[in-house]
Every structure is written in structure tokens, then in C-alpha cells.
Design goal:
There is one protein chain. The model is unreliable at 330-334 and 399-417 (pLDDT under 50). The chain has helices at residues 19-30, 44-64, 77-94, 109-120, 138-144, 167-174, 196-199, 250-285, 313-320, 341-345, 350-353, 367-390, 398-404, and strands at residues 7-8, 71-74, 100-104, 124-128, 149-155, 180-184, 203-207, 218-222, 291-294, 303-308, 324-325, 327-328, 356-360, 414-416. Helix 9 crosses helix 12 (367-390). The chain has 2 domains: 7-13 and 267-416, Aspartate Aminotransferase, domain 1, CATH 3.90.1150.10; 19-263, 3-Layer(aba) Sandwich (Aspartate Aminotransferase, domain 2). Helix content is 40%, strand content 14%. A 7-stranded mixed β-sheet has the order 2-8-7-6-5-3-4, sandwiched between helices. The protein has a 5-stranded antiparallel β-sheet with strand order 12-13-10-9-14. The chain has a two-stranded parallel sheet with strand order 1-11. The protein is of the alpha/beta class. Strand 9 and strand 10 (303-308) form a beta hairpin. The structure holds pyridoxal-5'-phosphate. Pyridoxal-5'-phosphate is lined by residues 76-78, 81, 108, 110, 155, 159, 184, 186-187, 207, 218, 332.
Length: 417
């Protein structure tokens, strides 16, 4: 009998492409009238491609509650984050309008590294510490704003823990200050309702491959009215209001557009399904005892980040290899194998950080997948803990600590049964 392939529970790293999205992409790659450059408005081929791009712009904007003319196509959320931060701060610094930005230690590296690059150019960065449960109080964001602050950049949903920042409340708090507010919504778009224009957010980063679209395409929403000006990262033919020049990839963009339209249709059903699967996974995993939830129970429905006490993460990873595809350590399918900066910023001790795993669920995750994964984890934990108990290692402490923390599921890094 052949082994079933590992269950894919790494949807926060990337999602499978929806078959309908593949179909629309193929149509714009190889269809009889698909060869036009969307900038070639002088013939029907170019105009056809331009119409596909504009339809996608509407679809993306509709998903996040933004004006379509604010959508600027990028290669993904990494580029969108860089364009937002470098673009806004460089624009202000050149004109002597400030050089300070505020962000948080739990942000994605695409924001943190852009902050570091700006520091090398003379900007000053305040990185806020989150609460132990990963949350951030809007008042603390406001307190960090100075007279020379140009930009506040915060993510909506954390990619490792699923913790949600209350973007509407933070935007409201910042309304009285002349600062720009950028939100990395790569993990939230399609999973939580967004109301970008109503919230008064200035820039928002999006990525297609997190919502069943293709890799290599994303968008930065840049508030069109009143017009927000940023420095481009590159110079060329003036596409995308001069903010992101270069020939537009019609097939990628059409794919992202359809993925957003499908996500908008399915957001309620997807969310209910993900919540049920996450609850099921938690219930089964916590039977092991010594299982710690990182983050908050009211986080995004697709992410469950847990630490397993009394085992070495790498050993458990090896045990699970054939059963499940998940992320450990620096979770975003990264090439960087250092312990998670997110969990560390939340005060999780390194010993637990390295035995923590992010399970991220998707539209097609079934109850039997969850059960199979949980069975493998419990089996692996039993084996590894029995070894460490024999050797007198930390496994022995599990029971005590687990009992102490047998409380609410909502707080960060609590030990839960
Ligand atoms: C919150 C967040 N921001 C940014 C990114 C980068 O997105 P992309 O892969 O589209 O560059 C990711 C995923 O890797 C993410 O989860």
C-alpha cells in the first residue's frame, strides 16, 4: 500500500492556485487574442489586455474596500512593503518633511528589512514591542508618533501567529496626526473583511499567492484621493501612475483579480470552515498536554501556532515529515533558519520557540486531514517524550506546567491542556 502524501498545512506560506484562476491565466497566456501589451492602446490586442487588467483592478479593490484607481500592481507583498516604506520615507526625507517611522518587532521581514535599509539612509525607526499575546494597543502606537514621523507601518494579521492588529482602531487613533499609515494585509485579505477606504488607511500591501492566486504578483494600494505621492523604486515607462513602471503581466494580474473575486464570494464559508478545522486541530493536539498556544484564540482563522514542551523541535519535525507539511521557527517558508523573531518579541523563551510549529489551514483542508496530522503529532510527542523521560530531560516538567496554565485559550503563550 502506498503512503498518502503529507497533509499540506502551510497555507500561510502559500496556497494552492484555484483551478478557475489557472484557467483565466491560461486564457491570458495563450488565448488567440492574448498577445497584446496592456499599454498598447492603439490596437484591439492591447486594449483587450488593458481591459483584463482594469477588471482585475476592480476585483482586487472590491475585496479590500478600496478605490480601484488606488491599486498599483507589484510582484507581491514584499515589493509592495518595500515600495510603501522606501517610497514614502524617501519622498519625505528629500523634501525635509520628516525622517521617522514607527513599526513593530513582529512585522514580516519585508517590513523590518526595509526599515533597516532606511536607517542606513539616515531615517530613524521606532520598533514597538508587542504584548505577550502579540497584540498592540492603539494608544502605544500614538505615543510613538513624533513631530518628524512620516509613516506608521503595521501588519493586519501576523503570518506566524495569526494575531490580528485592530487596524480600524489604530487608523482612528492616528487620524489626528499628519502621518501616513501603511498596512501589510498579505495574510488578512480574503480571510477577514477589510474596509481600506472607510478606515482611512493610506497604503495596503497585498499578495495573490496567499489567497489561491499565483505567486509573483501582488499590489500596493496607494490612496488616490487626496493624492498620495511616493518615490518609485524603479524608473521606466510611467505605468501604474509612475509608481511601478514596467510592462504589466496580464495573466498574473487577471489571475490575482479572479482569486480576489472568488475570495470575496467565499469569505464567510471559508472563515467558518477554517475556524472549525482550527478548533478541531487544537482540541486534538491539546490532548497531549504541555501544548502552548502562541498568540490569541481570536486570531485569524487559518493559523494555529503552538509550542510542544519537552521535545526538541527538529526531532519532532523529523517525526512528522511524512505526515504533514508545516512551518517551524521562522515560519514564512523562509530560507532563514534562525528562531522566530515574532515569538521572541512576544517573550517566548528560546527553548519553546524552537519547539514551536505553525499549522496553517486552507479551504481544502478536511477533518480527516486534521485528524491524521494530530494523530502523527501525538504519536511523535509520545515517542520523543518517553526518550527524554528515560534520559531525565525536560519532559518530566510537562505535567506540572500544563496544569498551572489550564486557563483561558485567549492569552498569548499560555500553557494549555
Ligand atoms: C505578512 C506578510 N507580508 C509579506 C509577505 C511577503 O509576500 P510575498 O511572498 O508576496 O512577497 C508575506 C509572505 O511571505 C507575509 O505573510
Amino acid at each position: 500500500m502506498t503512503e498518502a502524501p503529507p497533509v499540506y498545512l502551510d497555507h500561510a506560506a502559500t496556497t494552492p492556485v484555484d483551478p478557475a484562476v489557472v484557467e483565466v491565466m491560461m486564457r491570458w497566456l495563450s488565448g488567440a487574442d492574448a498577445m497584446g501589451n496592456p499599454s498598447s492602446r492603439g490596437h484591439c490586442y492591447g486594449r483587450g489586455a488593458a481591459a483584463a487588467v482594469e477588471k482585475a483592478r476592480q476585483q482586487v479593490a472590491a475585496l479590500v474596500g478600496a478605490e480601484p484607481e488606488g491599486i498599483v500592481w507589484t510582484s507581491g507583498a514584499t515589493e509592495a512593503n518595500n515600495l510603501a516604506l522606501l517610497g514614502a520615507v524617501r519622498f519625505a526625507m528629500k523634501r525635509g518633511r520628516g525622517r521617522h517611522l514607527v513599526s513593530c518587532r513582529t512585522e514580516h521581514k519585508a517590513v523590518l528589512e526595509a526599515c533597516a535599509a532606511l536607517e542606513r539612509e539616515g531615517a530613524e525607526v521606532t520598533l514597538l514591542d508587542p504584548a505577550p499575546d502579540g497584540s498592540l494597543c492603539p494608544g502605544r502606537v500614538l505615543d510613538a508618533v513624533r513631530d518628524d514621523t512620516v509613516l506608521v507601518s503595521l501588519m493586519h494579521v501576523n503570518n506566524e501567529t495569526g494575531v490580528i492588529h485592530d487596524i480600524a482602531a489604530i487608523a482612528d487613533t492616528l487620524r489626528s496626526c499628519p502621518v501616513l499609515f501603511h498596512v501589510d494585509a498579505a495574510q488578512s485579505a480574503g480571510r477577514l473583511p477589510l474596509a481600506v477606504a472607510d478606515w482611512g488607511v493610506d497604503m495596503v500591501s497585498l499578495s495573490a499567492h496567499k489567497l489561491y492566486g499565483p505567486k509573483g504578483v501582488g499590489a500596493l494600494y496607494v490612496r488616490p484621493r487626496p493624492r498620495l505621492r511616493i518615490e518609485p523604486l524603479a524608473y521606466g515607462g510611467g505605468q501604474e501612475r509612475g509608481m511601478r513602471p514596467g510592462t504589466l503581466a496580464t495573466h498574473q494580474i487577471a489571475g490575482m483579480g479572479l482569486a480576489c473575486a472568488l475570495a470575496a464570494e467565499r469569505i464567510d464559508t471559508d472563515s467558518a470552515h477554517l475556524l472549525a478545522m482550527r478548533r478541531r486541530l487544537w482540541d486534538r493536539l491539546s490532548e497531549a498536554g504541555g501544548v502552548v498556544l502562541h498568540g490569541r484564540w481570536d486570531g485569524a482563522p487559518h493559523i494555529l501556532n503552538v509550542g510542544f514542551q519537552g521535545v526538541h523541535g527538529e526531532a519532532l519535525e523529523t517525526e512528522l515529515e511524512d505526515a504533514v507539511a508545516i512551518s517551524t521557527g521562522s515560519a514564512c517558508a523562509s530560507a532563514d533558519a534562525t528562531p522566530s523573531h515574532v515569538l521572541r518579541a512576544m517573550g517566548v523563551p528560546d527553548t519553546l520557540v524552537i519547539s514551536s510549529f505553525r499549522f496553517s489551514l486552507g479551504r481544502t483542508t478536511r477533518a480527516e486531514d486534521v485528524d491524521r496530522v494530530a494523530r502523527s503529532v501525538l504519536q511523535g510527542l509520545r515517542r520523543l517524550r518517553s526518550f527524554s523521560a528515560v534520559r531525565g530531560e525536560e519532559g518530566g516538567e510537562i505535567g506540572t506546567e500544563a496544569r498551572q496554565g489550564n486557563a483561558a485559550v485567549s492569552a498569548g503563550s499560555k500553557v494549555l491542556q
